[in-house]
Design goal:
Layout (H helix, E strand, L loop, with lengths): L2 H28 L4 E2 L8 E7 L4 E6 L3 E5 L5 E6 L4 E7 L4 E6 L3 E6 L5 E6 L3 E7 L5 E9 L2 E8 L4 E7 L3 E6 L5 E6 L3 E6 L4 E6 L4 E6 L5 E5 L4 E4 L5 E5 L9 E6 L6 E5 L3 E5 L5 E6 L4 E7 L2 E6 L4 E5 L3 H31 L2 H16 L1 H28 L20 H9 L1 H21 L1 H10 L4 H12 L6 H11 L6 H8 L16 H7 L7 H12 L3 H9 L4 H12 L1 H17 L2 H6 L11 H10 L4 H30 L1
Antiparallel strand pairs: 1-28, 2-3, 3-4, 4-5, 6-7, 7-8, 8-9, 10-11, 11-12, 12-13, 14-15, 15-16, 16-17, 18-19, 19-20, 20-21, 22-23, 23-24, 24-25, 26-27, 27-28
Length: 658
């Protein structure tokens, strides 16, 4: 193929790559379906209700408040109880709201004013309520303990009609679609249908403890167990559909819901995850919210979501088919972008004269030794999959707001250098850098003094047996895990029973006793002092090996010329050990930049920030704060520190060799 044809192909692949990138970005925005609604309670939300006649939203909170909002978010009225609200049942025709509360009461309120029209005190903690369509009867699930609950039936005027006692915990109770039966879900994974007199009509056993249950149209029932397996059953409790989230880690189910037709199923978890499934029970969407999800409510084409936080989200099922397509193919587009980019670059290089010849020559070499290169493919594939891919993700996402709450491509945004500016503005990173350099300077001094001195003393012994014994004794501590060593020093520094304060007390130096790890003036120096007398095993062995490599003839000649041990050390041995010193310098530098394990075990960066280091900042942002993008930026900066030190070491070594 001529040069012009190759360049045309390069242009075609570039165009395909650009189109794929555009589609990729668009699909990311399409899959961001959650819309925050203007209903702010300022509290932890628990349950939702809706009055269709006045377009009023009702929110029962975990903080004992029930609030009504207009469509634009204006608060209309509020009502206070003595416990968290568990469930709301709205009857718009009679302007009545039934609110089940954990203070043992079902409150009957006026929808327009929030005024109490009546209440039913069941003298037990209420978990679920339901009301018949004619409001003639109220179903209440309540209990006095974790393993004993009652199903109570009350008339509209508060008269108890039935009291069914169970020695298991009911996780859900509601009327069937025709209101002639009652569905019960328990903590043993059993789903039971009983009639109004309490007689069992049907029973089925599912996999795990059930956590939530909803009534669907057509006599169907929707339920979910603690492991997020959901089921749709008919009125005889035969399973019609089932599904569960696709995750590599365990999640704990909390709430289940669906759209009005029961086609799309939505699952909420304790870990704040929301999963959406289509009518074929395939997962088409997943995201993570700010707090645990507690309730779903279907209104027309929309589904509303709330949880233990001040938020109400909405998404519509009109675009869910498109969302499902993009959700399935969105991750695969990254692969196509990479392939198109490689092809475009390859054909572009083939269109340039010099690179074309080099590529052809390289291709011939690969073909000539194809077996050898094919055998290397698995090794390089594993390196790319488990080493370089993680590095690539860290570098690229250091410029994004990737976090617990923004963990899908549709929600992750490019923020430029904001993460790096945050390092300066927050100040913790700068404090950590200061402490890191102090620890680095101390580490270099400790590495270049005591291990070198001990290695020289052992090497200078006359008898090989003595050398072997002392070498073994100095290397023996390497069998003790680092965690054990750190915890041992934590006991030494204990202000009450620690060895250091006890020793000072026995010597009559009580005035020198300190809370070594709890005092900002002493904590960092206590960290530095860990490992005394600082005979590091690795530096000792490196120095000792370097001394053993020195030609004995050189040392003997120096002695014959009248040189003493000190002059031999400083004039002959130390200069020859320069290569070992450079290696230990770079290893100490890398260790001081990256290591934080000992500090985490001893002080966790405290007291205050007196022992804080950048590695600890990275760890906390990853495991506790969930700011993954910021943690990636921290890792990138630490990598640049390490790379700079390594390059400096290589340059110094090159100059020495010359």
């Amino acid at each position: 193929m001529n040069k012009k044809g190759v360049l045309i192909l390069a242009g075609i692949w570039t165009l395909l790559m650009c189109v794929t990138v555009i589609v990729y970005r668009y699909s990311g925005s399409v899959t961001n379906i959650m819309e925050l609604m203007p209903y702010s309670t300022g509290q932890q939300n628990q349950c939702l209700g809706y009055d269709e006649k006045t377009d009023t939203f009702l929110i029962g909170t975990y903080n004992n408040e029930l609030m009504a909002f207009s469509r634009n978010g204006e608060r209309l009225w509020s009502f206070s109880a003595r416990g968290p609200f568990r469930q709301l049942v709205v009857h718009s025709d009679t302007r009545t709201l039934y609110a089940g509360n954990e203070d043992n009461n079902v409150y009957i309120l006026n929808l327009d004013t929030g005024k109490v029209q009546g209440s039913i005190n069941v003298e037990r903690r209420i978990f679920n309520i339901d009301v018949t369509s004619d409001e003639a009867e109220i179903l209440i699930s309540a209990g006095t303990g974790t393993n004993r609950q009652n199903i109570l039936l009350y008339s509209a005027d508060g008269e108890q009609k039935a009291n069914l006692s169970y020695n298991i915990r009911m996780k859900g109770a509601l009327y069937s679609s025709d209101y002639n039966g009652i569905y019960l879900a328990d903590n043993q994974g059993e789903l039971i249908r009983i009639d109004r007199q309490g007689r069992e009509v049907a029973r089925t056993s599912l996999q795990y403890e059930l956590v939530d249950m909803k009534r669907l149209d057509g006599g169907r029932l929707l339920t979910m167990d603690k492991s997020c397996n959901y089921y749709i059953l008919d009125e005889n409790l035969n399973i019609l559909r089932r599904g569960n989230p696709v995750e590599s880690f365990a999640v704990t189910g909390r709430a289940i819901g669906s759209d009005r037709n029961g086609e799309y199923i939505v699952v909420g978890t304790e870990e704040r995850f929301l999963y959406l499934f289509d009518e074929g029970d395939e997962q088409i969407y997943a995201t993570r919210l700010d707090n645990s999800i507690t309730n779903f409510m279907a209104l027309g084409e929309d589904v509303y979501v709330t949880g233990l936080g001040d938020f109400v989200f909405r998404f519509s099922n009109t675009d869910l088919a498109l969302v499902g397509i993009f959700y399935r193919f969105h991750p695969k587009m990254r692969f196509f972008i990479l392939i198109f980019a490689v092809l475009a670059l390859t054909f572009l290089l083939l269109g340039i004269g010099r690179t074309r010849a080099a590529i052809i020559k390289t291709g011939q070499v690969f073909y000539q030794h194809k077996i050898a290169y094919l055998l290397l493919v698995p090794t390089f594939a594993l390196l790319i999959a488990f080493n370089y891919s993680a590095v690539f993700i860290a570098v690229t996402r250091a410029f994004t707001d990737w976090s617990w709450d923004r963990n899908t491509w549709g929600t992750i945004n490019f923020v430029g250098l904001d993460n790096f500016r945050l390092m300066i503005s927050e100040g913790y990173f700068l404090i950590g850098i200061k402490n890191m350099f102090i620890i680095l300077a101390a580490g270099i001094i400790k590495t270049m003094t005591v291990p070198l001195l001990v290695a020289w003393l052992v090497f200078s012994m006359k008898h090989d047996r003595q050398k072997t014994i002392f070498r073994f004794l100095f290397v023996l501590p390497i069998v003790v895990p680092g965690v054990v060593g750190a915890l041992m020093w934590k006991q030494i520094y204990d202000p009450s029973i620690g060895l250091l304060n006890q020793l000072l007390g026995r010597m009559g130096l009580e005035n020198l006793q300190q809370v070594w790890l709890g005092d900002e003036k002493w904590a960092l120096w206590a960290i530095i002092f860990v490992g005394f007398p600082f005979v590091g095993v690795l530096p000792f062995l490196v120095f000792y090996g370097g001394l053993m490599d020195i030609d004995a003839g050189i040392l003997e000649s120096a002695r014959l010329d009248g040189a003493g041990r000190a002059k031999i050390f400083f004039r002959i041995q130390l200069p020859i050990l320069l290569a070992q010193i450079k290696v230990l310098l770079i290893l100490t530098f890398i260790g001081s930049v990256q290591d934080f394990g000992g500090i985490y075990l001893l002080t966790a960066g405290g007291p205050g920030t007196s022992t804080y280091v950048p590695g600890l900042e990275l760890y906390f942002n990853t495991t506790q704060f969930g700011r993954y993008g910021y943690a990636c930026a921290l890792g990138l900066v630490l990598f640049m520190f390490t790379l700079a030190g390594t390059l400096l070491n290589m340059k110094m070594k090159t100059n020495t060799d010359e």
